[in-house]
Specification:
By secondary structure, the chain is mainly alpha-helical. The protein has one domain. The protein is 55% helix and 8% strand. The protein is built from 4 helices and 2 strands; from the N terminus they run E-H-E-H-H-H.
Length: 102
């Protein structure tokens, strides 16, 4: 997804849900050889669909799976939980460090 190419995924579970949610490619059930062949054929014959899936995947990586965002969300979540704990020390920042977390 990160390189902007359509995904052809043979899987179930969370990885399959991510590809489906972001319309980043096609998901084929494990063992479904006919489905895999059909999916590859559809993508081969549909350059516009490939471009759309590739763009969608790249945008998903940029918007939802970038490290900075994940770290900021984690720190915010832990900070909120910690503020309600009287034994949790305050979150300290080094000099000159800023944050949009509040």
């Amino acid at each position: 997804m990160a390189v902007g190419r359509p995904v052809v995924l043979i899987a179930q579970g969370e990885a399959a849900e991510i590809v489906r949610k972001h319309h980043a490619g096609v998901v084929v059930a494990p063992g479904d050889i006919d489905g895999l062949l059909k999916s590859i054929e559809v993508l081969y014959k549909s350059p516009d669909l490939c471009a759309e899936y590739g763009t969608n995947g790249r945008l998903a990586v940029e918007n939802e799976f970038n490290r900075k965002k994940i770290v900021e969300e984690f720190v915010e979540k832990e900070s909120c939980q910690c503020r309600s704990d009287p034994f949790c020390p305050p979150l300290e920042r080094s000099a000159g460090e800023s944050s949009s977390l509040g």
